[in-house]
Design a protein that fits this description.
413 residues, homodimer, 14 helices, six-stranded mixed β-sheet, Alpha-Beta Plaits
C-alpha cells in the first residue's frame, strides 16, 4: 500500500517554515507498519492543491494532507476537495455546537467566521480537534483514502495520534509489521556496531537500522512476516539479543526522552541535581528544564564560561587551571565537586570542553570534552571527543552527561 | 520559471530526519527572485529516483536535488541520472587530484572507494565541494536544468551559496524581483501591524509579508517589476517607510542573527555580559554561546531555578520573594543586579517567569515573564506575556532579553 504525505502552505515553498509535520507523521505511520512512499509540499492556491491532490490520488492509495483547513479566505483545502471529489459542502450542526461550547468555557464569543468550520464535504468522515477549530476530514472513494488534517503541529499531532492512527490500523491491509526502537546515547555508532555485529543473526524479514543524530543513536527493528505473531516474535527476539549486548547503553524506547527519564529517576529517588557548564553555555540546564515540573529535582546551573567564574564561584583551584588547563579531567572534577557543594544537591554534572571551531591543540583537538559527575560516593570525570561541529558538540556533551548520571543512579557498570 | 526541489533519502520517508535542506534552498532561491513551485522527497532506490526525476523534469524547468551522491553502494543518484539522461559516467582526473590533495593535507590516506567520486555523467558541469567528497552536478538539456547537490547540510549550503546561486542568477530569465527581509523581535505581530498599516501604501507589484516565529517577526518585501531598477526602487521605498515607523524594532536584515549582532556590539564596545536565568533554565546562555568566540564578551550565567539559588548566589532578598514572588519586577531587578555584581560584568540580563504549562494565577497567568537589565546606569525590568506554550515562552523570553540589551547599548528609546 503506497502512502503519500502532502503538506500545504506557501510558507513551505518560500522556506519560511521547515516542514516538521511530514517527519512526525511518517514516523507514527511506520510504527503501525505503514511506509510512506511519497512526500511533497504544495502552495495555498486551489490550482496548486488540485494538481497535487490528483497526482497523489493517482499514485498512492492513502493520501494525508496537512494545512489549509482554517476559516479564512486563504485556507483553500476544502475548496480543492470540492473540485477534485465533486462533493458539496454540507453544514454540520454538531460540529458548530461543539465549537461554540469550547468558546463558552473560555468565556469568549466565537468569531462569526468560525461557522465556516462546520461546512464539510458531503459524505466525509470527520475527526474531532481538541485544540483548534478545524476538524480532520476523511473521504474514501474508489479504493483511495484521502485524509486532511490541520497544519498547526499541536492540532495535527492530536488528531493523528488519537484518531487517524487507530482508523488506519483498522482499514489497512498492512502486512504484519512490527517496529521497535531502542534509544541510546553517549556511545558512537561504530562502537555499537562493534558490539552488535559479531553474534548478530537476522531472521528473514527482519531489518536493523542505525539512526545516528546529535542526541544519540537509535536502533530500529522492522520485522515483516505473514502473521502478526510471527513478526512480533522475531522483532522481540532481536530486541532481546540487542539488550544482551548493548543493554546498558539503552535509555528508552520509541519516543522516550532522556531528559524526561532522568527527571523521573530523580523524582522517584527524591534526589536533586545541579550542573556546572562551560562549553555548553547553559544547554544542559535548558535541556533538563524543558520538562514541565523539573523544579522538583533541578536546583540550578553555574555557567562558568570564563575561568574567573570557575575559580570564584565553583572554587576550582587556580593551580588546576594553570597546570592542567580549563579543559581537563582535574578541572571537570573540581567543577562538579564545587557545584554540588555550592548548590547543595545530591548530584552535580560538569562539562568543560573545546567546542570549536578554534581553540584545539594536538593534545586536545576541537571536540575534546570532559564530563564530571559528583555525588556523595565521590567525583569522577570522563574524557570524550565529539568532533569538530560546535553545535553538535554541545548537544552531544549534554546528552552524554545525562547518560552518565543515569548509569550512576541505576548503578550500571 | 517553475522550480522543483527534490530531497532524496529513505530517512526522510521514515521520518527519521526532518528535511531542513529544502527550506534553506527555497529561501536562498527566493532571495534571487526564483520561486519554488514544487517540493518533494523520494527514497534511495534507483526506481524511486527515476520516477521522481522524470516527474520533476516534466513539470519544472529547474530541478535541484540533494542527497545520494556519496561513494557507497546505497548512493544511487548518479545511477538514476545515467538512466534518465542516458549519459555514461566519465572519469575526471582533476576531481580525483583535488580530492587526494585534501586528504594529504590532513595526513590521511584517501579511502579507495572515494575514486567513485571522480566519475561524473558525460557533459555535466560540476561544482566543487569544500567540505566533502561529492561535487555538485549540473546537466542542461532540452530547456531543463538539473542540479544535484550532496545531502549533508554543510556541504549543500556551501555549494548552493558559492556556486549554484551565482550560476542561476546568470541563466535565469527571472522577472526583476527584489527581496528584502527586516528582522524584528520582542514585539508581537499585532503591534507591528498597528504601527505599519495606517500610512502604508503598497505600490503595484510590491508585497509585504509578516513571518512570525518563536524568535521574532520577520517582515519580507517582495517587489516585482519590469526592470531591475524599478523593482529595487520600490522595494527600498517600502523599506524606508518601514524603518520610519518600526525601525527601532529592526535588529537586522536577511539572515542576520540577533545573538551574533549582540556579540559584535559587545566586542566593539569592549563590554562584557552575564545572565541570571530562572524559567529559561540556561537557554539564554546557550544562545549567546552558540556564537564562536563568545568567550570574548560572555562571562557566565547563574541559572537560579530554585529560590535558594536566587537568595544565596544572586543575593535576592528573601523579603522580595516573600512579598512579591519569584516572578516579579522586584525579583528580576534584584537578580540582574546581583548577577552583575557577582560576576563583575558591564551588563547583566535576568529572566524570571512562569513557563507553564502549570503555575499560573489570575494575576500572573502562564507566560508572565519579567526581564531585567542591569548596567552602570542602573537596573530596570519589563513585564511580558509570551503565551501558554512552554517551549515558545522560553525562546521568546531569551530573544526579548537580547533585544532589550541591544536597545540599551545603542541607546534606542
Amino acid at each position: 500500500m503506497d502512502i503519500e504525505i502532502l503538506t500545504i502552505g506557501d510558507e513551505l515553498l518560500t522556506g519560511d517554515i521547515i516542514d516538521s509535520n511530514a517527519a512526525y507523521m511518517a514516523e507514527r505511520l511506520l510504527q503501525i507498519g505503514l511506509r510512506v512512499r511519497y512526500m511533497s509540499s504544495t502552495g495555498d492556491s486551489v490550482d496548486q492543491m488540485e494538481e497535487a491532490f490528483r497526482l497523489g490520488l493517482n499514485r498512492a492509495q492513502i493520501v494525508i494532507t496537512t494545512g489549509g483547513l482554517g476559516p479564512t479566505d486563504d485556507d483553500n483545502t476544502k475548496k480543492a476537495i470540492v473540485k477534485v471529489f465533486k462533493r458539496n459542502l454540507i453544514f454540520h450542526e454538531e460540529v458548530l455546537v461543539d465549537l461554540k461550547k469550547r468558546y463558552e468555557i473560555r468565556n469568549i464569543e466565537m468569531p462569526a467566521i468560525n461557522q465556516n468550520q462546520a461546512l464539510l464535504p458531503q459524505g466525509a468522515k470527520f475527526f474531532p480537534n481538541k485544540h483548534g477549530s478545524a476538524v480532520g476530514l476523511c473521504i474514501s472513494e474508489n479504493g483511495r483514502t484521502f485524509i486532511s488534517l490541520p497544519g498547526v503541529p499541536q492540532e495535527m499531532k492530536q488528531i493523528l495520534d488519537d484518531e487517524v492512527i487507530p482508523f488506519l490500523q483498522n482499514i489497512s491491509d498492512n502486512e504484519s509489521i512490527t517496529v521497535l526502537k531502542l534509544r541510546t546515547t553517549g556511545t558512537g555508532e561504530s562502537k555499537l556496531v562493534e558490539l552488535i555485529t559479531p553474534k548478530l543473526k537476522l531472521e528473514s524479514g527482519v531489518k536493523l537500522a542505525y539512526l545516528p543524530s546529535y542526541s544519540g543513536v537509535d536502533l530500529r527493528i522492522i520485522s515483516t512476516a505473514k502473521t502478526q505473531e510471527e513478526s512480533k516474535t522475531r522483532a522481540y527476539d532481536l530486541k532481546r539479543y540487542l539488550d544482551s549486548v548493548i543493554g546498558k547503553y539503552v535509555y528508552g524506547k520509541d519516543f522516550d526522552k532522556l531528559e524526561e527519564i532522568i527527571g523521573q529517576l530523580l523524582k522517584d529517588n527524591d534526589k536533586t541535581l545541579a550542573t556546572a557548564e562551560s562549553c555548553t553555555g547553559g544547554y544542559l540546564g535548558s535541556l533538563v528544564t524543558s520538562i514541565p515540573g523539573s523544579s522538583k529535582w533541578f536546583i540550578g546551573s553555574i555557567v562558568s564560561y570564563a575561568n574567573e567564574v570557575k575559580i570564584n564561584q565553583l572554587k576550582v583551584a587556580e593551580k588546576i587551571i594553570e597546570e592542567h588547563g580549563a579543559v581537563s579531567e582535574e578541572c571537570a572534577i573540581a567543577m562538579a565537586d564545587g557545584c554540588r557543594k555550592l548548590l547543595d544537591t545530591d548530584y552535580a554534572l560538569s562539562i568543560t570542553g573545546i567546542a570549536g571551531p578554534d581553540g584545539g591543540t594536538d593534545e586536545k583537538p576541537v571536540g575534546t570534552t570532559y564530563i564530571g559527575l559528583s555525588s556523595k560516593h565521590g567525583t569522577t570525570a570522563t574524557r570524550f571527543n565529539f568532533g569538530t561541529n560546535r553545535n553538535a558538540n554541545r548537544i552531544r556533551a549534554s546528552y552524554s552527561a545525562l547518560e552518565m548520571l543515569r548509569h550512576d543512579i541505576l548503578d550500571i557498570k
